[in-house]
Amino acid sequence: WDETHFGKMGSYYINRTFFFDVHPPLGKMLIGLAGYLSGYDGTFPFQKPGDRYEQHNYLGMRGVRFCRLFCAFLGSCLVPFAYLTVLELSKSLPAALLTAFILIFDTGCITLSQYILLDPILMFFLMGAVLSMVKCNSCADRPFSASWWFWLSLTGVNLAGAMGVKFVGLFVVLLVGLNTIYDLWDLLGNLSLSLIVFGKHLLARVLCLIVLPLALYTAVFAVHFAVLNKSGPGDGFFSSAFQSQLIGNNLHNVSIPE
């Protein structure tokens, strides 16, 4: 059922047809982009679950028969992400290999990653944020180095990605936030650091973990509204003034009072 739901929204992006959904737009935008780049023309109706795709090129969005395209590729990235995270936390190769082995043969991950769903995209950004956070923590002994800035910034990018796919991504924001508070509290208690250095640490985290994710999250919506410029099933959720900007809407370019 969900593949029918989100596959249709991918088609909306390809056809630039405006729609409304409860989830943020990033996941559906990426599904539509994957379909567009792989040759899908956005014409499959996605009317009910189980419909055959027939001549429609869906492999770019879905990824079956070991194609590992987009959703399947992102799902497969969970294995190295988990491996690297556990290896960094435990410094134990057997523990990291066991974690990777468990995920490789996890039926739920395999199933979710072979359909047109938001779940593999969401899990990619969630685990990417955790991995980036752990890697940044490992650079604590060399703050403001290139690697430290890279992992801190990448954490912010992954936070924006998680929030941009589903609002449940806020839980990883909470995790990173608690980790950041702990780090700052530890730095504040370090009497060998001046308040100026502490202020730099605080500013770096504000820029990379608050400003950067919010800017990227807002940019996703800007792209969303720029691409979907044609009338569609989501018109009625918005004001008459907004509907007048949609091509094909009854109010398009109509002069109306504010």
From TrEMBL:
Instruction: Classify the main location.
Output: membrane
Q: What is the annotated localization of this protein?
A: Endomembrane system
Question: Which residues span the membrane?
Answer: 66-86, 92-109, 149-182, 202-227
Q: Which domain of life does this protein belong to?
A: Eukaryota
The pathway where this protein functions is: Protein modification; protein glycosylation
Question: Which residue range or ranges hold the ArnT-like N-terminal domain?
Answer: 1-229
GO cellular component terms listed in the entry, alphabetical order:
endomembrane system; membrane
State if Amino-acid biosynthesis is listed as a keyword.
Answer: no
Membrane topology recorded in Swiss-Prot or TrEMBL: Multi-pass membrane protein
Name the Gene Ontology molecular function terms of this record: mannosyltransferase activity
BP terms from Gene Ontology: protein O-linked glycosylation
What keywords is this UniProt entry annotated with? Glycosyltransferase, Membrane, Transferase, Transmembrane, Transmembrane helix
The record's similarity note reads:
Belongs to the glycosyltransferase 39 family.
**What is the protein's name according to its record?**
Protein O-mannosyl-transferase 2
